[in-house]
Amino acid sequence: MESLQIYIDNQEVNWSGVMLELTAFANGLIKAKSWFRKKSDSFLQGKTCSDYVMEAITWHLENPEKYDPSRGTFIKYLKYNILRRMIHNDATSKENRKTRDVFGEKIKDGNDPSDHYDSILPSIEEYFEDNIDYDTIMKAVEKKCENDDIAYKIFYEVCLCGGKRREVCREQKMAEKEYDNGIRRLNTILEEIAIQFQLKTQSL
Amino acid sequence: MSMNSKYSSKNLSNFFSAYLESISSDKDSAREYLTAQGLNPDDIVKEGLKRIKKLQLQLKAKHTQSEFEEGTDLIKQKVREQVKLLTEKIGFSFAQFIKQEQIALHHRNLETLTDADIKDFLEEYFYLKFKSEQNRGNS
Predict the structure, then answer these.
(1) CB contact under 8 A, A128 and B9
(2) For residues B130 and B78, is the Cβ–Cβ distance under 8 A?
(3) With contact defined as beta carbons under 8 Å apart, do A83 and A54 qualify?
(4) Count H helices, E strands: chain A?
(5) Which of these ranges, A95-99, B8-12, B127-131, has the smallest mean pLDDT?
(6) pLDDT at position B74
(7) Residue A48 — φ and ψ, nearest 5°?
(8) How far apart are alpha carbons B100 and A15 in whole angstroms?
(9) Which terminal CB of chain B, N or C, has fewer other CB atoms within 10 Å?
(10) How far is the CA of A54 from the CAs of A48, B17, B38, B45, B137, in angstroms?
(11) Do β-strands A7-8 and A11-12 pair in parallel, antiparallel, or remain unpaired?
(12) What is the DSSP letter of A119?
């Protein structure tokens, strides 16, 4: 594969990895926005995941000085800072607003000093409407994953305690692959429950 | 949320944050997720790299153009004279010029170039050429 010769911290960027990770992230984030709807959109305002990914890369290539390596890896910066901000801005634009009137107020447009990963939570929280009985849904998910030890541990550590992948794996002595498979099973359970409660008719 | 509620939207948001982290945690996880979504990871990479390459060339051209705009009057004057002389020459053919100078036109279709595009391209080309000659002279 031909080298693009773009370096970050004296290391050549692996663009194929970047493309894949960013596209998966964008796809998941856009779908989270419309999770409690009958259909899961994979685009916002006429833009596809690839458009957002390219927009984020373009923004970085035009403003390389904005990346501060001391705050996290390059890929996390692209995902949680640039891409997340772009999708959030479109998702909470006037035409995409739902019920809350605080949309857009929690997210700073700038390069805020908090950890890149932590910036995602306020964005996602705003995607979920107030008129849904989260307590009933989550209790049903909890009940359903009781027979799956790994999924239950993840449910407890992630949903209740807000744990991150690395922390959960370390604390629960779980291999990363085990965790990834477990969280996918948990996602399937969540989808089944959403369908059961008629909050969703099509899977992610 | 009622007084007896144990869960809120926060718990679901925690899940989606972790889920996003997991599906995009590395190249293999992302590939697996995208395939499950009915997307072709190889096509995504191929198309993405093509677009980045094109973007790099556009940014490079933009950079050279702004460097030219901000450059010293002497080189700017020389470039403008050269481009004027060349394009006003009877029988000037841009395609012929490209061939003669052995210039590779990455991702550019000759037929779609306007007169302004050609002028910008020639200015960029001669600017880089004269600048490199100047640098060689200085060293």
Answers:
(1) yes
(2) yes
(3) no
(4) 9, 4
(5) A95-99
(6) 79
(7) -90, 175
(8) 35
(9) C
(10) 10, 22, 20, 12, 41
(11) antiparallel
(12) G
Q: What is the pLDDT of residue B107?
A: 54
Please list, in sequence order, all residues whose beta carbon lies within 8 angstroms of the beta carbon of residue A124, skipping any fewer than 6 positions away: A29, A32, B13, B16, B17, B20
Nearest to A128 among B12, B18, B53 (CB): B12
The answer on pLDDT for A41 being more than 60 is no
Q: How far apart are CA B22 and CA B14, in angstroms?
A: 12
**ipTM field:** 0.82
Chain A residues touching residue B56 (CB < 8 angstroms) = 4, 6, 61
Which position has the token pair 């409660």?
Answer: A197
pTM: 0.74
Q: Is the pLDDT of residue A113 over 60?
A: no
A106 touches chain B (CB under 8 A): no
What type of residue sits at position A55?
Answer: E
Residue A61 is nearest to which of B9, B41, B55, comparing CB atoms? B55
Q: CB–CB of B123/B65 below 8 Å?
A: yes
Q: Say if residues A204 and A35 touch (Cβ distance below 8 Å).
A: yes
What is the residue whose two structure tokens read 């992610």?
A204
Tokens 């080298």, residue located: A3
CA dihedral sign, ordered A111, A14, B62, A86: negative
* Distance between CA atoms of residues A197 and B16, nearest Å: 19
Q: What are the pLDDT digits (tens) for A180-203?
A: 999 999 999 998 998 888 776 544
**Cβ–Cβ < 8 Å for A153, A172:** yes
Strand, helix or coil at A7?
strand
Report in angstroms the alpha-carbon separations of A80 from A16, A77, B118: 18, 6, 40
